[in-house]
Structure formats: structure tokens, C-alpha cells
Amino acid sequence: MPAPELAAFRPLWTEVARQHAAPLSQAVLGGFRADRLAWAFFSGYQAAGRVLQPDLGPQVTFGLAVTEAGGGHPAAVETRLSEGADGGFVLHGDKRWSTGAEACDVLLVVASAGEGPDGRKQLRAVRVPTDAPGLSFAPMPPTPFAPELGHASVRLDGVRVGADAVLPGDGYLRVVKPFRTLEDVHVHAAVLGHLAGCARRWQWPASALERIVAAVVGLAPLATAPPLDPAVHRVLGGQLAAIADLIAELAPHLDAMPDEVATRWRRDRALFTVAGKARALRLERARQALTA
Questions:
Q1: What pLDDT does residue 118 have?
Q2: What was the pLDDT predicted at 84?
Q3: Strands 62-65 and 106-115
Q4: Taking 80 as the threshold, does the pLDDT of residue 119 lie above it?
Q5: Residue 199 burial class via C-beta count within 10 angstroms: exposed 0-12, middle 13-18, buried 19 and up
Q6: pTM listed for this prediction
Q7: Are 108 and 166 in contact (CB under 8 A)?
Q8: Count of other CB atoms within 10 angstroms of residue 254
Q9: pLDDT tens track for 163-192
Q10: What burial class does residue 156 get, using C-beta atoms within 10 Å of its C-beta: 0-12 exposed, 13-18 middle, 19+ buried?
Q11: CB 226, CB 206: distance < 8 Å
């Protein structure tokens, strides 16, 4: 089913999420239903969010707000979480490049609660409904790939939340770092689901579909494995390399799709290079940790 805008794809995603509880299944089947990489990415992103927040209902969409003007690393977080007069908390700050934020129902916002004894920022992840007073969005420029999936800047101007909205533990270790691994697993699973859908629609050889399904099976154990485990990062590195090789081998079938579909695929495949340096660094650190 063609879905040129997220509003058209969201009901399909909701249907998948309602029928399948396991995030990996949501990712693969959401990608299968997607008519383009943008919605496959959206499906994997939403599925990864449900690993972190398993109580999200199928009709609820999730977003993450981490990156600021200085980047996405902990030292760049200037958004402030302070105690309010009513026993709750207040958020002030600006975020950038929040994926699909304007279409989300819930944001996980990473903010600084001050400095610890070691002088480092104490980061917290805060769950904020997107209709909260003081929360506003502005669109960021569209990316050259998958432009249908927008990104937004997020302004938090005295957004009040209850104490129960602040997730326990360090927000970077509790949310940001594991999400990066979970996102890689589930987005690639969704892309494979999308490729399986292409194989069915355009009648690729049975062997192509079998290899796609085998790649999904290879990712499955990683979907429930500890996302900060160096061993998981090494296996994931190998799986992602194998998926890249598979996509390269499927190029003749991808290029033979109808012109509009094939052109969109060629435009959007740069999506696979996003965060490539961060993945390479994560893999190298995992190698060093396991060698030591």
C-alpha cells in the first residue's frame, strides 16, 4: 500500500504493533508493510523504543531527544532538569534532530540534573508527552535520504513533569547507549523485512528471499541480548557486515524494480551509512575489551 506520508503509514504500523508483541516481529513486519525505507526505519525505531519502554501501547509512537547544538555526547547536553516547587520537575532546553518528533506521542528527553562529585554531568532520561505545555517543535531541514521521515528541533520551555516521569539511573547508560545498539538491530531487521516485501512484490528468486529470512534469523538473538555487552557488539558487527554484503548482492533485483521504486531506493540507501563511524568505534572497543 503506497504511503507517501507518515500519517498514511502509521495505521499500518499500529496494526502490526497490536498483533505482534515482540519488538523484533514489529520491526520485521512493519518493514514488510512499508513501501519505502523511510517507514522501514520508522518501524525499527519504534520497535527499539519498545525494548526500552515496553509499556508503550501499539497506538503510541515514541521519540528520543538527545542531540543538541554541540552534538549527542554527554558533555553536549545543556538541557536542564530541575526540581519544581510542587515536588515534580521542570525541563528547560533545546534539542535538535529528533526523529519523527512532531508525529510522536511520547519523547524520552535526556537532560542534565547538575554535576556529580566527579564534576561530570548527571544525566537523566525523562518521559514527556508531546502535548505537554511548554513543549514545541520546529522542522529541521529534510535529509537527502528518506526525506519523508522528518526531524525536528524541540524546545522545552518550563515543561513540568511528575517525579515518576524521570527514569531511574544514568540517562546516558540507561537509555542512549543501549538504544544505539537496539536501534541498529531493529532498524536492520526492518530493512530486511522491507526487502522481503520487495522480493514478494517483484517476484525475486526464491533463493533471494531465503537469504533475507536467514539474515533476520541471524539478528534475532541480538534483539533480546544485553545491548551493552561487548560480545553482542562483536556479533552485531559481523551481522551488519553480512547484511551489507547481502544488499550489494541483491542490487540487480533492486535496480530492476519499477523506476519510481528503484530511484527512491537508490536515493535512500545512504541511510545505511548514518552513524557508521560510531558503529566502527563501538566494534573496535568491543574487540579491545574482549581481547583484554
A1: 83
A2: 86
A3: parallel
A4: no
A5: buried
A6: 0.96
A7: no
A8: 18
A9: 999 999 999 999 999 999 999 999 999 999
A10: buried
A11: no
The amino acid at 211: R
Mean pLDDT of 63-77: 94
| Exposure b/e, 127-143, CB count within 10 A at least 16 = b | bbebeeeebebeeeeeb
**For residues 106-132, average pLDDT:** 93
Tell which residue, 97, 222, 96, 118, has the closest CA to residue 170: 118
Q: Is the dihedral of CA 15, 5, 2, 33 positive or negative?
A: negative
Q: What is the total residue count of the chain?
A: 292
Cα–Cα distances in angstroms (integers) from residue 107 to residues 96, 127, 163, in the given order? 13, 6, 16
Grid cell digits, residue 91: 525541563
CB atoms within 10 A of CB 167: 17
Cα four-point dihedral sign 112, 225, 64, 97 = positive
Average pLDDT over the chain, rounded to whole? Answer: 95
User: C-alpha cell of 90?
Assistant: 521542570
Question: Going by C-beta distance under 8 Å and a sequence separation of 6 or more, which residues neighbour residue 214?
Answer: none
- Closest by CA position to 23, among listed 2, 44, 1: 44
Q: What is the dihedral of CA 31, 267, 10, 34, to 10 degrees?
A: -30
Given pLDDT bands bounded at 50, 70 and 90, which one contains residue 237?
very high
